[in-house]
Specification:
The radius of gyration is 12 Å and the shape is globular. The chain has a five-stranded mixed β-sheet. Helices cover about 25% and strands about 40% of the residues. The chain starts with a strand and ends in a 9-residue tail after the last helix. It is built from two helices and five strands, in the order ββββαβα. β4 (about 35-45), α1 (about 50-65) and β5 form a beta-alpha-beta unit.
Length: about 90
């Protein structure tokens, strides 16, 4: 999947995938200084169970590393992923 970087306004951003004008996968965050406060992850029911949420988080993590940001997990998926996977230790606050 190729996720599109989207500016949502007011320091809010997303990586998302759309299909026929509908959002089918998305991770959103608000910038707080140099911290990405990740507050929402959505995956269409048709895509669930295929690792799409992890791919979204990986995209956000790569962006954070590139910009030298940290991630504050707010949404339940990211909280769980940060507990489960050590690969995000370098970007945890």
């Amino acid at each position: 999947m190729n996720f599109e970087f989207v500016e949502l306004g007011e320091e809010s951003f997303a990586f998302r995938q759309t299909e026929e004008g509908n959002v089918i996968a998305e991770i959103t965050w608000t910038m707080l200084g140099d911290v990405m406060a990740v507050d929402h992850t959505f995956v269409s029911p048709d895509l669930r169970g295929q690792g799409v949420a992890k791919k979204l988080l990986d995209e956000a993590a790569a962006y954070a590393r590139e910009k030298e940001y940290k991630i504050e997990p707010i949404c339940s998926y990211v909280v769980t992923a940060f507990e489960r996977y050590d690969e995000y230790n370098d970007i945890k606050i």
